[in-house]
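Reviewer comment 2.1 asked that we show a complete input and output for one of the modelled complexes. We chose the 1,3-dihydroxyacetonephosphate case, as it is the one discussed in the main text.
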Amino acid sequence: FPYTTLFRSGILQAAAELKKPIIIETSEGEANFAGYQIFVDTVRDLADELGIDVAINLDHGKSLESVKYAIDSGYSSVHIDCSAMKKEENIALTKQVVELAHAHKVSVEGELGYISGSSEVHEGEQPRSEIIFTDPKEAADYIKETRIDIFAGSYGNVHGIYKDEPKLDIERIKKISELSGIPLSLHGGSGIPEDQIKAAMNAGICKINVNTEIRKAYREALDKALKSKNAEIVPYKYLPEVIDVVKEVVKKKIILFSK
Ligand code: 13P
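Response of the prediction step:
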């Protein structure tokens, strides 16, 4: 119940208030927690009720099995992340996913290079030595061979918020965009300064993933609500203010990404 309420008011209502379409994603972990089918049904019902267009994406799918679950449950796109594999293995699995997904009119996001970190607030500085930057020529070959629809690259972006800011390699994004000709996605959208977001969008970024900033806002607002109403046990009495905080975070992102 609290989980669906988070989507209802925090994310989908932000899109509804601004009359914008939105992409809502789950990782495999989130989908396992909510239930793939329950998640899709809930989001589609809420989107219909609010009158908004919503795309539902599996984020960082790691296997053909989870991609199949997502497709069978009605996700409209899947991200297959084989970036930890050798390039040949990445290409082979991505091709299998594309074949399956396209047969169901589901689009595919593929990845090459390594985007490090996780969607959390980290203690230290960015793990720059872990980043494996995407080579533009290799990306173009990978995209051509796998026939993916959108590409997630590593251009200085990392997952999560660190003490220091990321420094995106805008020229690299531009080059990959020019050579590949398909939309590019930017993972690790939390904590990236606005000017870098704008420059990345101008260079070819069409989809931006934001997680940590939303998780952080949700958790801090929940702590605050529980503290101020510490005897309250009724979720619909302490959750509305939490949902409003999430909604405002998402609205700011939609406005920034629509400019
Ligand atoms: P952040 O947690 O840094 O926003 O990244 C989210 C993401 O890229 C999920 O794939």
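The chain has a mean pLDDT of 94. We note this here for comparison with the apo prediction described in Section 3.2.
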